[in-house]
Design brief:
The chain has 14 helices and seven strands. The chain is an alpha/beta fold. The protein has a seven-stranded mixed beta sheet, with helices on both faces.
């Protein structure tokens, strides 16, 4: 949803946009090209993403003063803003989930289609690997995380099969075990049968759901009047967290729950947020061209500062 993401930041004040999941930098570069008044603070926990971003800067000197990088997970946003003495930002972008390079490189262990080690770490400095989850978690723990992180209805059967097949040595071995555990009729619909379980394990390895809420709240709090926070989510667990944080932001006791800039005169100096109506799903054309875009959901919230009676 590149065009939609760029449009999100068309009217935000001049300043810094945090790209909390820099990846290949496609969104960030498009925003910089579209809006000369904006700068990007790019965060990514993947060393390969940071190395690629540094190459982009080396190849295009115009990026040097407009693109700043930090090799951190996005739940370190508050610390990065403090380190940079950046009290306010013009907005933030979170493109959640796994990136295409991570999926396409077998050695990273994210793919159920290409054989590789059971790794799945987005940050290779991390200690927990997919092999630890697959070969060491007990059956109950596996069943619970597969159900919670992927809404997999056959979580118990899959967990039991994984435990019975140990030790599991690689990604294709794991995928075969998962596929065999799912009833044949269910394997014929909904894409690759191992997709949801791989997603659940990846989320566990990287603690993706645990860190999301805090990072979103920090981003919203740091966003200046007229700024926006945009989130691309890809599965129900992420969706629930994003919706909750956005709803809580509108209902916060310190904020006014209103979609307009007009508030009662007694509410002087109160800040609030409002949802921004944007296309929520990728276009049918984009879904046809990019199968990975089909599950994407875009949500945008705008910060508004209202001062009345001054």
């Amino acid at each position: 949803m590149l065009d939609e993401i760029v449009e999100c930041f068309a009217a935000v004040p001049s300043g810094v946009i945090v790209d909390a999941t820099f990846g290949l930098g496609g969104h960030a570069i498009a925003i910089l090209n579209a809006y000369p008044n904006l700068q990007i603070l790019g965060l990514d926990q993947d060393a390969d993403a940071i190395a690629n971003a540094e190459k982009l800067i080396a190849q295009d000197s115009s990026l040097k003063d407009r693109l700043t990088l930090r090799h951190v997970r996005f739940d370190a946003l508050a610390e990065v803003l403090e380190e940079m003495s950046l009290k306010q930002i013009s907005g933030a972008l979170f493109d959640l989930g796994v990136s295409s390079p991570q999926l396409d490189v077998a050695d990273r262990g994210f793919s159920y289609r290409h054989d590789g080690p059971l790794d799945m770490r987005m940050d290779q400095r991390g200690q927990l690997r997919a092999a630890d989850v697959v070969n060491e978690y007990n059956e109950s723990e596996l069943s619970q995380l597969i159900a919670q992180n992927a809404d997999e209805r056959f979580a118990r059967r899959i967990a039991k099969a994984i435990v019975a097949a140990r030790p599991i040595s690689g990604t294709t071995h794991l995928a075969e075990v998962i596929v065999a555990a799912i009833p044949a009729p269910a394997r014929r619909t909904g894409g690759h049968p191992a997709k949801r379980t791989f997603q659940a394990i990846r989320i566990e390895v990287n603690k993706e759901l645990e860190i999301l809420e805090r990072a979103l709240r920090v981003a919203i709090d740091a966003t200046t009047s007229g700024g926006r926070v945009a989130v691309l989510s890809y599965h129900s667990g992420e969706n629930r967290i994003v919706k909750k944080v956005f709803t809580d932001s509108q209902r916060d006791a310190n904020e006014v729950n209103t979609p307009s800039p007009f508030v009662h005169e007694s509410q002087s100096g109160v800040r609030h947020t409002r949802r921004v109506r944007m296309p929520k799903y990728p276009s049918s054309k984009e879904q046809t061209l990019n199968r990975r875009a089909k599950s994407a959901r875009l949500r945008v919230i705008e910060k508004t500062l209202v001062e009345v009676g001054n």
